[in-house]
Design brief:
The structure is a single chain. By secondary structure, the chain is of the alpha/beta class. It is 37% helix and 20% strand. It has helices spanning 7-12, 35-43, 78-99, 122-135, 155-163, 178-184, 190-202, 221-232, 265-280, 298-304, 345-353, 367-382, 387-396, 402-409, 437-442, 450-459; strands spanning 50-57, 59-60, 72-73, 106-114, 137-148, 168-174, 208-214, 238-243, 284-287, 291-294, 309-311, 314-316, 322-326, 331-334, 337-341, 359-364, 384-386, 421-423, 426-428. Helix 3 runs parallel beside helix 4 (122-135) and helix 8 (221-232) packs parallel to helix 9 (265-280). It is globular and about 60 Å long. The two termini are 23 Å apart.
């Protein structure tokens, strides 16, 4: 019999925990890691290395009050045009660096995040994509994904996306309820969302992800289920369900959201569970912590076969060992470490236009970091970890096994609350306990000391990429 999830249990584990889209997480990046080290890491990539590219467009034309992104609101196009010049300069610099040793690289995934990438003019988006293709060799089956704000998007932009080779879109919905939309300053009707998705499908772009957020002001279980019901009518492939992060001390515009309008932790959990049950009853597979996909979708297949991965965009089918981030505040994930660009737009643009790499901080991974990263990713993706797996990972990186095996045995402490079940030399997180997945992963985080937990509590720092839309850092 499954252990019940009580209010007491939710409160017990409701404390700040990283999202583990990287390990070590972003708060542990150091300014001692600079552009010179990033350059060395790029040059060390082996010939034939598969690459994934991320492009950050940090502009929007309206401010959504729930947003936790690194973005800037503008009604003028000139700042965007100037930013694109710097972005293309950075692309040129990195491509030149990678090609100077005569090596060849094949790009398997591209993701445009924001902000709102569709704030670009149709001509500028097409020109940017052409610049990418000129500088990088794209695989024939490369996935090219763009985050879409369907509000006010014109036909010419949709055509530019299709002509440029975009084959997957990620559409921000959050909630279709008018009262919730008013409370977050994002008025977006179902009709305009459907129209954009349908028009893109007619242009051949028919792989669709939807983002929905629970825990929003004025939101109820009935409202979010109605949003999911409407979303399924859009012929979507995947849904990402994220918890709202109310961090007004970091994002001052969130002060416009009244705390008394926010659901409490039990209500948040009920909303997330209701969505999961609704989607699974309609043929969607619950993947990892917060993703859902149709049974025949590549992400669902990757989950079934143990090939699911996790990066700064969350769960992914992207298996490229190297992800290069372009644009202000973006993060690159290379085999030997993480490297983050300057978040200040003027400083980023000056460095990029000068032909310099705009790296300002990062971290070089130790062998122990590699071991813990692989263990945490297995837990986050497979909801399980075994002693043989830990031993194999330790051997892979020439690390002793004693410490990690001892930590593995300590997972027994979570069994009393039903967070894990033990099967011989394997601990499994029951599907109905996946809300506590990060609690189990955090057990292997050597940096998450009591002091750093207090820091997380005070600052709500998470390891989000620029594209993440204000996802909650609490464990639930």
């Amino acid at each position: 019999m499954s252990a019940p999830i009580t209010a007491k249990l939710l409160q017990k584990y409701s404390h700040p925990i990283p999202r583990y889209t990287s390990y070590p997480t972003a708060p542990h990046f150091s300014d001692k890691v600079d552009a010179q080290q990033f350059e060395a890491s790029l040059l060390a990539l082996p010939n034939g290395q598969a690459l994934s590219l991320y492009f950050h467009i940090p502009y929007c034309d309206t401010l959504c009050w729930f947003c936790g992104c690194h973005t800037k609101i503008t009604q003028k196009y000139q700042p965007i045009a100037e930013y694109l010049l710097a972005l293309k300069a950075e692309i040129t610099s990195i491509a030149k660096l990678l090609s100077q040793q005569g090596k060849n690289y094949l790009v398997s995934h591209i993701h445009f995040g924001g902000g709102s990438p569709t704030i670009l003019s149709p001509r500028d988006f097409a020109d940017l994509m052409a610049h990418v293709k000129t500088n990088f060799n794209l695989a024939d089956a490369a996935e090219i994904a763009v985050e879409i704000d369907p509000r006010g998007i014109e036909d010419e932009m949709l055509k530019a996306l299709a002509v440029s080779g975009v084959n997957r879109i990620s559409v921000g919905v959050q909630d279709f309820d008018p009262e919730v939309q008013k409370a977050i300053n994002r008025i977006q009707t179902f009709a305009e969302t459907q129209q954009v998705i349908d028009r893109l499908a007619n242009l051949g772009v028919n792989k669709v992800n939807i983002d929905i957020i629970y825990g929003l002001p004025k939101q109820t279980k009935a409202k979010i289920i109605d949003t999911v019901r409407q979303s399924l009518a859009l012929n979507i492939d995947r849904i990402a369900l994220f918890g709202y992060a109310h961090v007004p001390w970091m994002k001052t515009h969130q002060k416009l959201i009244l705390p008394e309008d926010l659901p409490q932790i039990e209500q948040r959990f009920e909303q997330a569970e209701a969505v999961s049950q609704y989607l699974q009853a309609r043929g969607f597979r619950h993947i990892g912590l917060d993703h859902f996909a149709k049974a025949d979708d590549p992400m669902a297949i990757a989950d079934k076969t143990g090939q699911l991965k996790r990066n700064f965009q969350g769960y992914t089918t992207d298996s490229a060992p190297a992800l290069i981030g372009f644009g202000a505040s973006s993060i690159s994930s290379l085999p030997d470490g993480y490297f983050q660009n300057q978040p200040s737009l003027p400083s980023y643009m000056q460095a990029a236009n000068d032909g310099a790499l705009p790296t300002v901080k990062g971290i070089i991974l130790t062998n122990e970091d590699h071991v813990r990263r692989d263990i945490i990713e297995k837990i986050m993706c497979q909801l399980a970890i075994s002693k043989p797996e830990i031993t194999a990972i330790c051997h892979k990186y020439n690390q002793p096994t004693n410490q990690l095996v001892a930590e593995f045995e300590q997972l027994e402490k979570f069994a009393v609350d039903g967070l894990v079940n033990r099967h011989a030399d394997k601990f499994v997180i029951p599907p109905h306990m996946r809300a506590f997945l990060r609690v189990i992963a955090a057990h292997f985080d050597a940096n998450l000391t009591p002091t750093s937990t207090v820091q997380l509590q005070n600052n709500q720092q998470t390891d989000t990429s620029p594209s993440h839309k204000g996802r909650h850092s609490l464990a639930i």
